[in-house]
Structures are given as structure tokens and as C-alpha cells.
Amino acid sequence: MNKTLLALVLSSFSLGTYASSDLNSLFKQTEPKVIEWRRDFHQNPELGNRETRTAGIVAAHLKSLGMEVETGIAYTGVVGLLKGAKPGPTVMLRADMDALPVTEKTDVPFKSTKTTNYRGVDVGIMHACGHDTHVAMLMGAAEVLANMKSELAGNVMFVFQPAEEGAPQGEEGGAELMLKEGIFKKYKPDVAFGLHITSKLNVGQIGYRSGPAMASADRFEITVRGEQTHGSTPWAGADPIAAAAQIVTGVNHIVSRQINITKEPAIVSFGKIAGGVRNNIIPEEVEMVGTIRNFDMDNRQQIFEKIKTTAEHIAMSSGNTAHVTIYEGYPVTVNDPKLTKKMLPALEKVTGKGNLIEMPKITGAEDFSFYAMEVPGLFVFLGGTPKGIDPKDAPSNHSPYFYADESSFKLGTKALTHFTLDYMAQAK
Hints:
Blueprint: H1 3-14, H2 21-43, H3 52-64, E1 68-73, E2 77-83, E3 86-96, E4 115-118, E5 121-124, H4 131-146, E6 153-161, H5 174-180, H6 183-187, E7 191-202, E8 206-208, E9 211-214, E10 216-225, E11 229-230, H7 240-258, E12 266-274, E13 281-282, E14 285-294, H8 297-317, E15 321-330, E16 333-335, H9 337-351, E17 356-358, H10 368-372, E18 377-385, H11 409-426
Parallel strand pairs: 3-6, 3-7, 7-18, 8-17
Antiparallel strand pairs: 1-2, 2-6, 4-5, 8-18, 9-16, 10-14, 10-15, 11-13, 12-14
């Protein structure tokens, strides 16, 4: 692409006008490759921290484009650096690579038949959350941008990340480990962009939300210890089951009565309560496990503290004890408001009028949040449900029937590319 044409392209973005036959030609040329890569990754899924085949294909592709490539970050992560010919910011683009322990039930010709033993259970492996599409689209964007290398006003940092769905038990992983191993200190990105395919939008649509967009996700465990006794004489011991029941009620009142939910919503849910072996024995111990979802980091800390206080005091009031452990997971995913506002015109030109959708808050979580805590970030959602099908009826992400329509990939590749071009143009 010559200098005059690229200058027109970049200036057109800053003026809010989208038009470039040469750029569209690059997208058209890349689209079949993106589809081919996606099908291959889908047929050969790998779980978190084990994405060796995927990482190898990614690294080879980035090297073929003339990039500096680093591998083996956070087990299998890959970072490629595309250096533009002109000075400017470093833009980070991220894709996650891991699949899920789900047995695929779609009828696509490239369906996964891979299996594994996951936590003692034989199960299939499937890209049930669309990470295969993320990798393929970012590889496509890398190829398009590499063709523009001589005119790029800045650098592009391509991050292919393992274990977004969580690391295997006993291991670290994901975005947090990539940061811990120093990728931001080494490559110094100014901004971070990512996208996620979703069944909640139709092909051709992109969803966004400024500010808190996805919840933090944390796990808690409460162990209530009492004194075992016969069920006919509860006064002879301390009943942890009765205490656990009161703890459920008390903890559920934390959000509804003790947290300022006019600031941001929050959820505390119990997912498991286990204790006892038979009807007439009051057990010594009850185990309780749950999840915390929240959209404000200050509220998050308050909830942690109040769960601990509530459980301990309720247990104590009936002669029991409660031990509370909070396992901090992913922080709130916050889209930087200024960055979001700056990028919306470019996104709307990519999607076309009426196809850029403001999304509600999502109580699911994303470890892109760790990157967005370090630099301004923007994380958007790409529609993957075929046109003509109501997204409400489409199988959700993580379903064994999850399906991402291939006609969405070109738009995803465009969005990643134009994030880069528009940000660079506006940074001048």
C-alpha cells in the first residue's frame, strides 16, 4: 500500500469516514485463511497451559510475517512485535487460545473428537467459547497489518494467551501470569484491545460497553465446624448444618442490605453445601462453596470482608466455628471511557449504522481485565449467531452446541485492524 493511500486511509478514520479499496482487498484475501485456521484449531483444541500445537502454528505465522516473536511465555503464550516504520504508540491486540473440557455435539464437518481425562473424568475437548475464532482472526489482522508495516505509525504487539478459562489445578496461568513474566515491562504497550465472539449477537453486529463491562469473579469456601452428636439430642453437640443454613441467609443479605448497589450491582451465590452421612447423625463439619460477581473493586473488597465476618459470627453464636477462604479470581473488566469514546466512530464505520450495540453489563468474567488494569483497554463482543436466528434461541458460549458462523470472521479481523489504525492516527 503506497504512502498516499495509507495517509488517506488513516486521515479518513480520524475524520470519521471509512473507505479503502486496497485495505478491503487485503481483508478479502485474508478471509479464506482465517476460516481455514479456525477450522484447524477447532478440530484440534487444547486445554489451558497445554496449547503447544496452537502456539506453534501462531509463532510460525508471525515469524513468516517478519515479526520479532517470543514463545513459551506463561507456558505456551506467544508475543509477536510488528515494528512500524514511523514513530508512534505500541498497540496491543490479544487473543486467547484455550479450549474447554466439553464434549462437542454440533454437526459441523470439522467438529472436535479430542478427549482427555479432566479431574478424573473422561470428557471431550471443544472450543465451546470461540477462542479458536479469536486466534484465527488475530492471525488475519497480523497479516493485514504486516502488509502495511512500512507505513505504520507505531508498533503492534500481538498477544496469543493461554488459559483464559483458568489454569489447571496447582498451576498459574493466563493474563496474570503473562504480566507476571514481564510482557508489559518488555514491550510497553500504550493501550490494549480485545474482542470475544458471542452467540448473544447476530453476525454483523459488535457490542460494547463503556466503564465496567464484565464482572469480577471470585470463589469462596466456608468450612463450618461443630461437634458431632446424635440427631435425637442436638443439644449435646454443636450443629454445623443449622449454622450453615443461617450463614446462607446471612451472606445473601450482604448484597441486599450492606452494599451500596446503586453504585454497581453484585451477586453472591452458593453452589455447593455438603455435610453429613446419614439421617440421624449431626455431623462435625459442613463445607460450603460459592461465587462472587461484582462490578466495583471497592465493593468487591467489602464483600470479601463481610462474608468472613458474617460466617464467623453466625457460627460462633451457636457454638460452631467458621473458616472462610476467598480465592481471588479475575478483576472487573473495565473499558476505559475515554478510549471507548475515541474508538466508537471507527467501530461504527466497520459495522455500518445500526449494528454497533451498547451491551448491558455481563456477570461473566474475562482475564483481559488484568491488562486493562495496567493500560487503557477496550474489550468488545463480536456477533457469531447467523442472521435470521434470534440470539435468544442460540446455544450460549460454553454449550456443547455452541456455534460461531464463519461469516463473522471478516468483521472481527477488520475490527482488530481498525482499532490499530485509528488509534495510531489519533495519537499523532
